[in-house]
Amino acid sequence: MYRSRFSRSAALFLALAIIACALSGCTEREKRYEVTYLSLFDTVITVILYAADEAAAQAEFQNIYSDLAHYDALFDIYEAHGGTVNLYTLNETAAIAPVQVEQALFDLLCFGREAYEATEGRVNIAMGSVLSLWHEARSAGIEDPQNAALPDMTLLQEAAAHTDIGDLVLDEAALTVFFADPLLKLDVGALGKGFAAELAAQSAKERGVSRMLLNLGGNVCAVGEKAEGEPWRINVQDPDDASGVLTTLSLQDASLVTSGGYQRYYTVGGTQYHHIIDPDTLMPAAYVKAVTVTHENSGWADALSTALFNLPYEEGRALAEKMGAGAVWERNDGSIEWLGISPEE
Question: Which domain range does residue 278 map to?
Answer without folding.
Answer: 16-48+207-339
